[in-house]
Amino acid sequence: MDTEIAYTVNRQAILETIKRSGMSITAVCKAMGIARSTLYRKLDGKLYFTTREITDLYRLLPCDPLTFITYFFTLDVA
């Protein structure tokens, strides 16, 4: 059995978690040190999130670690 880890961005889950946190997109971007347009390009898969940006989001948003990881990575079992 082969297993692959794939980088994917679950745009909807990230936006819902931001909304649940009570933070605005602008506040999240400011805390991360990136422009809103950059965040949306990353959410749309046009740019990659850096490890630091993923870590920053994790620290900002109320989410358990196992769920949070699924926002960025999927496990494909063949």
Topology:
Blueprint: E1 3-7, H1 11-21, H2 25-32, H3 36-43, H4 51-60, H5 65-70, E2 73-77
Antiparallel strand pairs: 1-2
Describe this protein's structure:
This protein is of the alpha+beta class. Helices cover 55% and strands 13% of the residues. The protein has five helices and two strands. Strands 1-2 form a two-stranded antiparallel sheet. It starts with a strand and ends with a strand.
Descriptive tags:
5 helices; alpha+beta; two-stranded antiparallel sheet; 78 residues
Number of strands: 2
Provide a count of the helices: 5
| Terminal residue distance | 6 Å
Give the radius of gyration.
Answer: 13 Å
Strand order across the largest sheet: 1-2
Q: Which stretches of 5+ consecutive residues score pLDDT under 50?
A: none
Helix residue percentage: 55-70%
Q: Strand count, sense and closure of the main sheet?
A: 2 strands, antiparallel
Q: Look at the structure and give the mean pLDDT.
A: 90
Secondary-structure element order, N to C: EHHHHHE
What class would the helix/strand composition place it in?
Answer: alpha+beta
Strand portion: 5-15%
What sort of overall outline do the alpha carbons produce when their principal axes are compared?
A: globular
Brief characterization of the structure:
Helices cover 55% and strands 13% of the residues. By secondary structure, it is α+β, with helices and mostly antiparallel strands.
